[in-house]
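> example.struct
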């Protein structure tokens, strides 16, 4: 999922350099959404990992 964030970030940077504001803006927004989804999924998996570890002890 972070690969998608990097992909859209690169597209946004290239589009921004070339002056395509609409494409750059859309790519940045998509990258932000995917990044926050990835962060939330990471936090959920970390919490479940800690909870699972505590029940085994």
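> example.seq
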């Amino acid at each position: 999922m972070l690969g998608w964030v990097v992909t859209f970030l690169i597209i946004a940077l290239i589009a921004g350099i070339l002056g395509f504001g609409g494409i750059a803006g859309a790519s940045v927004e998509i990258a932000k959404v995917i990044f926050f989804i990835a962060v939330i999924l990471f936090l959920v998996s970390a919490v479940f990992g800690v909870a699972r570890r505590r029940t085994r002890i």
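> remarks
Residues 2-56 form one domain.
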